[in-house]
Design brief:
alpha+beta; single chain; eight-stranded mixed β-sheet; 6 helices; disordered C terminus; four-stranded antiparallel β-sheet
């Protein structure tokens, strides 16, 4: 009895697993662009919305600093220890590997001892502000999927702005303000993401949560992506279908999590006090040991792959689309305007594939304007008609019984054939030298 029950459960599991290989789950992974299905007309493609998996986007980033000579070590200088701001015999020297702190150390593998980090010059020009812009560029549209995390090796800055660009750095918008005193620094009341809601999720806030001074256990700054997702998907992100539905119908929401570039504007180093101590300026500088940015290539739901080619990320487009973001139809597939895929309906979404142009039309194209499926047929993704049981043909224009030796009897109960749009299709195919066979 137990063996038979086990075998029954195993068979059920195999069936479910087989189905799951071909259809995205309600969690919205969208990891399949198309799959073959069997119909009375044979094997045909069933298209669905799809997107690449999330990954560590720092692997593909290009970093620039402004001013370009802001990194310490040229000329060499001394600075105060990280944990003890009164121990000021540490040295930064760009000409010595062990003492250098170049920008690439913000992105190297962590876990080595001692930790590696980028470091700016000290605030030796005080009271002139010590401003640094760190720009992260991907030359590709990215959709963020997890928190942005910045780990400071020195104290977290007293004032900082995280900015984003959607047009490759031509224009910038603030993502979040950070300050030890938001009202004094940015004339904003302090808030946290917990103070937001579905209705205010796009509000740009100033937070004081991440701006404490030289506390050695407080080095991390977050930009909370997942907490904002949770307003729609629930605290444990169990209802991703709800989130995807909101992203699909609210462009501003989807754009909020989309970037081409990030900019970290460091405006005032950690001082732990209102005024900097002019006799101890070697205490004040910026040092970052790690930056984490997780996301996926934006492919407009037309690709599951994203490859690096000539140091640039490119979507591996399907659905007859092309371009870095699958943002246009391929040549000869411009039979209707390009459109992004849709997450809805859950779980497969809508592919919105590009269809052949009139000049390259094939024998399997239908639409809801000129090339109607006849006799109750349904147009599937503009590439085929799904016909009622009694009909066949490109536009369901033929009775199946016509293929029988005896033909169709008057008493067969099958209705007459509608030929109007078929004549239009015949004319279109005739212009291209094709025929209906």
């Amino acid at each position: 009895m137990y063996l038979s029950r086990f075998l029954s459960l195993h068979a059920l599991w195999v069936t479910v697993s087989s189905m799951m290989q071909h259809y995205p789950s309600v969690w919205g992974h969208y990891d399949v662009c198309k799959t073959q299905i069997y119909t009375e007309e044979g094997k045909v493609w069933d298209y669905m919305a799809c997107q690449p998996e999330a990954r560590d986007m720092i692997k593909y980033v290009k970093v620039t600093l402004d001013p370009p000579d802001i990194t310490c070590g040229d000329p060499p200088e001394t600075f105060c220890a990280m944990g003890n701001p009164y121990m000021c015999n540490n040295e930064c020297d760009a000409s010595t590997q062990e003492l250098a702190h170049p920008p690439e150390l913000m992105f190297d593998l962590e876990g080595r001892h001692p930790s590696t980090f980028w470091q700016s010059t000290t605030w030796k020009d005080y009271p002139k502000p010590l401003h640094v812009n760190i720009t992260l560029s991907w030359n590709k549209t990215i959709e963020l999927t997890d928190n942005i995390v910045i780990t400071f090796e020195s104290g977290r800055p007293d004032q900082m702005i995280l900015e984003k660009s959607l047009d490759y750095g031509r224009t910038w918008q603030p993502y979040q303000y950070y300050a030890s005193d938001c009202l004094d620094a940015f004339h904003m009341d302090p808030k946290s993401v917990r103070d937001l809601s579905q209705q205010t999720v796009l509000e740009i806030i100033c937070t004081e949560e991440y701006s404490t001074g030289y506390m050695t256990n407080s080095k991390i700054i977050h930009f909370e992506i997942k907490d904002r997702f949770a307003f729609f998907a629930g605290p444990r992100l169990h209802n991703m279908a709800s989130l995807y539905g909101q992203l699909d119908t609210t462009k501003k929401l989807r754009d909020f999590f989309t970037i081409t570039d990030l900019r970290i504007r460091l405006l005032r180093p950690a001082t732990g006090e209102i005024y900097a101590a002019e006799q101890h300026l070697a205490r004040y500088f910026y040092a970052i040991s790690d930056i984490r940015v997780y996301g996926r290539c934006k492919c407009n739901l037309h690709a599951t792959g994203c490859k690096e080619e000539n140091k640039r990320l490119l979507c591996e487009c399907e659905h007859n689309t092309t371009g870095p973001d699958c943002g246009k139809c391929k040549k000869n597939y411009q039979g209707r305007p390009w459109s992004p895929g849709s997450y809805l309906p859950i779980p497969k979404g809508t592919a919105n594939i590009c269809i052949p142009s009139i000049s390259s039309i094939g024998t399997n194209v239908c639409d809801n304007e000129l090339l109607h499926c006849q006799n109750g047929g349904t147009c599937i993704n503009n590439v085929r008609c799904q016909c009622p049981p009694a009909y066949t043909g490109i536009l369901c224009e033929k009775l199946k019984c016509e293929r029988d030796p005896g033909g169709c009897s008057q008493n067969s109960g099958q209705g007459a054939i509608s030929h109007g749009p078929l004549l239009l299709l015949t004319a279109l195919l005739g212009a291209t030298g094709l025929c209906i066979c």
